[in-house]
Amino acid sequence: QVQLVESGGGLVQTGGSLRLSCAASTPTFSSTAMGWFRQAPGKEREFVATINWGGTATVYASFVRGRFTISRDNARSTVYLQMNNLKPDDTAVYYCAGRAGLFATNKDKYNYWGQGTQVTVSS
């Protein structure tokens, strides 16, 4: 069973930055595609970013492109989400997710999920 544990959320002012981390407990992390999703109150969980197993390819949602960066350290079995120029609309619970095989933007293709970390951006 793969366990994912997110950290790094918190309260930040508009324009600020946060770095989320997601530590995975699996020996196959280096062959697992990873993604970040978020869910705001009353809304569906939405795609934010994904990265392939080797860290050589990424895809971003249009609303975070240029502000957020996904990366991974396979030696530490950790994936990161660097979030810059945060806006109040970025307020949500952020989840990391993993799947074997190719990276994906569809949340239904992910097998493993973390418990989420709250990000709140004040105006």
Helix content: under 10%
Instruction: Count all strands and give the number.
Output: 11
Radius of gyration: 13 Å
Largest sheet: 7 strands, mixed
- N- to C-terminal separation? 40 Å
Mean pLDDT: 96
Which stretches are low in confidence, meaning pLDDT under 50 for 5 or more residues running? none
- The computed structural class is mainly beta
Shape: globular
Strand content: over 45%
N-to-C series of helices and strands? EEEEEEEEEEE
List the helices and strands and how they pair.
Blueprint: E1 4-7, E2 10-13, E3 18-24, E4 32-39, E5 46-51, E6 58-60, E7 68-73, E8 78-83, E9 92-100, E10 112-113, E11 117-122
Parallel strand pairs: 2-11
Antiparallel strand pairs: 1-3, 3-8, 4-5, 4-9, 5-6, 7-8, 9-10, 9-11
Structure description:
With 123 residues, the protein is mainly β. The chain has no helices and 11 strands. The chain has strands at residues 4-7, 10-13, 18-24, 32-39, 46-51, 58-60, 68-73, 78-83, 92-100, 112-113, 117-122. Strands 2, 4, 5, 6, 9, 10 and 11 form a 7-stranded mixed β-sheet that branches. Strands 1-3-8-7 form a 4-stranded antiparallel β-sheet, with no helix packed on it. The radius of gyration is 13 Å and the shape is globular. The termini are far apart.
